[in-house]
Design brief:
Elements: H1 12-26, H2 37-44, H3 48-60, E1 64-67, E2 71-74, H4 84-90
Antiparallel strand pairs: 1-2
Length: about 90
């Protein structure tokens, strides 16, 4: 569960993006399915547009990929985005 501060000066989509990016980099694995935009919006009582902006940013940066009619999934991260701990074990 992410912590979103609706009173913060930082936009909600950016808070969500940063929280999801952190989870993708530290916890999730390639191919893990992300919750639907509708479910995230409902769970956090925010607009679907807010969630879409966060997902679009993650997609643009290559953290997630979209499968039509299936949803969003964690993308295979390039080596320069792979967390350091994984890089060490890959050597």
């Amino acid at each position: 569960m992410y912590v979103l501060d609706k009173e913060s000066n930082k936009p909600l989509y950016l808070q969500l993006y940063e929280a999801m990016k952190k989870e993708i980099v530290t916890t999730l694995k390639y191919g893990d399915k992300l919750p639907s935009i509708r479910n995230v919006a409902s769970q956090y009582s925010i607009s679907k547009n807010t969630v879409e902006w966060a997902y679009k940013q993650l997609y643009t940066e290559g953290y997630i990929e979209s499968a039509p009619q299936s949803g969003y999934f964690v993308a295979d991260m390039p080596a320069e985005q792979t967390p350091l701990i994984q890089t060490i074990y890959m050597l």
